Amino acid sequence: MSALQRLRAPSTVLGLICLLSLCCLAIENLHFVDSLLGTTYHRTQTIWMVLGLIGAGVVASVDIRFMRRLALPTYQILVVLLAAVLVWGREINFSRRWIELGPANIQPSEFMKLGVVLVLADWFDKRQAKEPWPLRQLIMPGALMLVPVILINREPDLGTSLCVLFIAAGVILYEGVRTRTLIVTVFLALVASGVAWQTGLVRDYQKGRVESWYQSLDDETPVHSKPSSDRSQAELALWAIGSGRLSGRSDDEARASVLRHLPFVHTDFALAPFAERFGLLGCAGLFSLYLGVVLWALRVAARATDRFDALVAVGIGGLVFWQFFINAGMVIGLLPVVGLTLPLFSYGGSSALTVLMGAGFLVNIAARRKGR
Amino acid sequence: MQISLGPQHDASKFQASNRVALLIAIAAVLLLCGRLLVVQVVRGERYQRFAAIERVAKVRALAPRGLVKGSDGTVMAANIDSHSLEIMTNRVKPERIAPIASRLRELLDMTDTDYDAAIADLSKPADPKKRRPLVVRKDLVSTHCPYDSTALELVPETPYGFCAACGRTFEPVTAKKNCPFDQRRLVAVAGSQGAWHCPSCDREFMDGETCPYDQHRVRPGHHNLRCALCKRTFNDEVAVLRAHLHELPEARVQAEIQREYPLRFLASHVLGYMGYVDAKEMEPLFWLAPPRFAPTDRVGRSGIERAFDTSLRGIDGEQVRVLRSGKEGDAKDLPELPEQLQPRPTVPGATLRLTLDLDLQRAAKTAMKDVYAGAVVVVDVHSGAVLAMYSKPSFDPNTMSGKRTPQQRNDGDAAAYAPLLNRAVHAFAPASTFKVVAAIAGLELGVIKPNSTFHCPGYYDFGGRRFHCHSKRGHGDVTVREALRSSCDVFFYHLGEQLGLERLEEYARLLGFGEATGIEINESKGRVPSLPWYREHVKGGYFPGFALSTAVGQKDVTATPLQMARVYAGLVTGRLPTARLVAGFESQDGKFAPAEPGIVRDLPIKKSTLTLVRSALRAVVAEEGGTAHAAQPTWTTMAGKTGTAQAAQRPRKDVVELLKGDPGALNRLASWLLNDHAWFVGWAPFDEPQLAVAVFIEHGGSGGHNAAPVARLIVDSYFQKRQPKLEAPETVAPAHKGHANAQADDDTAEIPVPDPNNQPTVPDSDDEQPPQSLPGQPAPLPEPSRTETPDTKHPDSKGHNPAAGESSRGGDDEVLP
């Protein structure tokens, strides 16, 4: 069975269809946002998408063993870049996340999501444990995970650092840990977050977001207490999404609504205009597409030929899943607001490149399975 | 791969993990969908409603300013709606700019400059943070004439032409080539045919199609409203715009409340006017206090409007307004509003009722019609209530309060006469009207006896100088009564010398000079000079000769017409009242709460003294040889004192500057300034005093000839109406004509007859002479030499005070524009 034939497996075809549909919907959504803001994000994003697809094609066709050898150096370079970005990075919205690279701004933290997946998969594969991992042996993968998390959190970029944490944790948990280890870790994490909350490691605005989210769960908050300029983006997003009702409403209606006042409507809150225009049904469809990609990744992982492939596939699935879940959850008011993009959907080159290259890995792995 | 575990093994190891991950992913998506169900379906309708709300804001609800009414309830200061055309620039798309502007040009008469300005303003990129709309036109014509606030009446369509290049409006040429407002002959526009111009109103008349000034085509149109007063024609711009607003969704007609003074020139100094707040007034009272005014607020700038600004203003409230997709509405369908968004009711301003008797005020205005400048004050002798207060030249508070400037009143030299100055409360040298002070002081202190005489040879020598009496031949031996009656200066020079400045000052202050009258509006206190004052203010200090001048009300003593009226009211009643203008406040339900009556001070002066002075002042009017003998009113008895203050002046530099382009006006002003001030202060009726009248005519000639007849007219008009039905000789019909209102007063009057109860009415009112000899032309005084004025030119006083009146005119500077 040739590699191409193997790619005709229904799961891969469906996964790719989901992926490409997401790309198209993202461009369409950005096109609408552009009409709202008078910008040209959808064109730029199309270029990134094309670049990402080319990158995905390269990743899919290159021997995965070669790329595996690059995992650790890539990780190291990204750590250096993350450190560098803290010093020389370009500051946007009070956060240093970007490195200026000619016309584009590169966000190393996005690539780190992929980097941490590769380096962990490499580390675990080299050790080939048969038993679930005890805590003390997890120090090294834990360190590999926490170094970028801490660096990203310093930018500050809580969303991405949490996302990296979840992706890495997902990989480790997938690899399998002892129940006791799991309990201890979860306990330690709870203690650590409590300490972080108390000691001011969690910043005040973040606390505020959590508090306002907590209040917004309790439906009957007075919504008109503030002028529109002072209303929280979570509140505005909620109104926009709620206005979509079951089947959405027309572009003109959506344009006349609160979306204009919603900050980050092209990036973190890109789901809000989509939800307003296509309603519950459209959103359910969009979520299904994401679920399709995640399930494809899990399927690829399940059928992978070796541990590295499986862990990379599951890591990429986690990469899409966690970003999607946290972002969608925050936009629709299920979670507090953190700065995080919706993979493929939000405007942003690094993010799109990362996700599409991740998809390239999935294709690569899917084509390799059963063969050896 | 060094260690090959085989796919099966690997897959089985991960099988459990994979299943858990699968479940987590599906559960997560279901959770998201569940939340979406809540947000979009369960609460969707509510969120959609909120989403449509662009802004919920508290808007200031302006408290309506309180009215000001006359004593009979006539509204003197009202509120009218004013409309402006606004364009919400944030809703204007670039391609709509030209259509909007051209449509507005069709609907309104827009000049090319206005049109270009509108396009330029609309083309400016809208600042999304600033939601302030663009005001295209203020004071849209609707129900009232923009020039004089008179109500507009519906007339058949009248053609007119509008030149968009110069902005002139051309009315059809009248048949007689007369201006429809002032009936003056029109002047042909130079270099044109069939185009006429009214120089006094600045109005244009033409039947052609080309503007005679710039040869542009004139846009023809039709007006269907006409001002009842000035006969200008208009269109109801508000109605026209409202009818076409559906074509202009970006525009709206915004209404605001503006102050209006229907009586215009009649009582403008009393009412005052409104002006925009300045930056200083907007500053909060103390740190962190809320700002007191918005930049668009107007506050009272003078008169009652200023004195009672706070009471008239009321307290602004707050409304909650909701902007939904560009449409504003109220907050009715919102859920319960939080505390900071609760509306607050407005407290309307208090309505003031003044003591002014408007008929008397009109009579005062009419009586002053031939006077350049001056003031009339009529006070109720018992209560101190001001029944009339008129200052001339007057102004139209409507134009001062920010309405369109009426081009019709091209006043030219009006500013040179300080129209904003309220001469009724401005201090001038009181001249002979001040002699009562010396008379009372002399009688009270026993310096003179009622029947002691002093010989007047026509001059008085003192300190090496000769002080002249106004009668060159002298008055012979005069008693105090005769001295007051004939206003003998020598008698009072002598008395002044005997009394000295300190005792004169004491009695002047006792009688109410040099102190505030208590009136609510701003007033001057006048001045009673004292020894310390001379030491402080006059180079060379006090000279004994000053007391002589002070005794006859010259030199440094000054008093306002209001003060004079109040002093004489005190004189005739023995009790000095507090002057007041506000009778009381009207509440919203029409209840009237009278203002607290002012303090009335008993004068510690012997009755005999007062009686003597009163009878002397009666003689001034009633007896042959009295200085106001010619001014005996028909309908009542009057007593009083004339005064002629020496006040020749040169035009001030700023006024010369102002009139630089008009030598005729400057000459007129200069010769006017050479005249004396004329005074008459008195009361009527003599026996049962009701009114105290002060007439002051600035550079108006002599008190007896010029001021007293004005007082006579005013008093007559007041008592004529209060007479029982009687017949009167035809000969005494007042000869004045002019103002429509005054005419009406005269028409309603029956033919006058002397009142048998009010004997003795001297029939010498038959030989009534025209009240004023100044009908339009300046300085036609019968004799240029001073008649009654004492010569007070001390050698030592020359250096610092060449003209006695000058010090009293010092206050003009702050009023002249």
Structure report:
- With 372 residues, chain A is mainly alpha-helical.
- Chain A contains 14 helices and three strands.
- Chain A has helices at 3-6, 10-37, 41-61, 64-88, 108-127, 139-153, 158-175, 179-199, 204-217, 233-243, 251-255, 271-302, 307-331, 349-368, and strands at residues 90-92, 95-101, 104-106.
- In chain A, strands 1-2-3 form a three-stranded antiparallel β-sheet, covered by helices on one side.
- In chain A, strand 2 (95-101) and strand 3 form a beta hairpin.
- With 817 residues, chain B is an alpha+beta fold.
- In chain B, 29% of the residues lie in helices and 20% in strands.
- In chain B, a hairpin with a 4-residue loop joins strand 8 and strand 9 (203-206).
- The radius of gyration of chain B is 36 Å and the shape is elongated.
- Classes of the chains: A mainly alpha (372), B alpha+beta (817).
- Chains A and B meet through helix 7, helix 10, helix 12 and helix 13 of A and helix 1, helix 2 and strand 1 of B.
Write the layout of secondary structure elements.
The complex is a heterodimer of chains A (372) and B (817).
Chain A: H1 3-6, H2 10-37, H3 41-61, H4 64-88, E1 90-92, E2 95-101, E3 104-106, H5 108-127, H6 139-153, H7 158-175, H8 179-199, H9 204-217, H10 233-243, H11 251-255, H12 271-302, H13 307-331, H14 349-368
Helix pairs in contact in A: 2-3, 2-12, 3-14, 4-5, 4-6, 5-6, 5-7, 5-13, 5-14, 6-7, 7-13, 10-12, 12-13, 13-14
Chain B: H1 7-42, H2 44-52, E1 53-61, E2 68-69, E3 75-87, H3 97-107, H4 112-123, E4 134-140, E5 152-162, E6 169-171, E7 187-188, E8 195-198, E9 203-206, E10 219-227, E11 233-234, H5 237-244, E12 251-260, H6 268-271, E13 274-276, H7 279-282, E14 298-300, H8 303-307, H9 309-313, E15 317-324, E16 327-330, E17 351-354, H10 358-367, E18 374-380, E19 386-392, H11 397-400, H12 435-444, E20 454-456, E21 459-462, E22 465-468, E23 476-478, H13 480-486, H14 489-511, H15 531-537, H16 545-551, H17 561-573, E24 575-576, E25 582-586, E26 592-594, E27 601-602, H18 607-622, E28 639-645, H19 653-658, H20 663-673, E29 677-684, E30 691-697, H21 703-721, H22 740-748
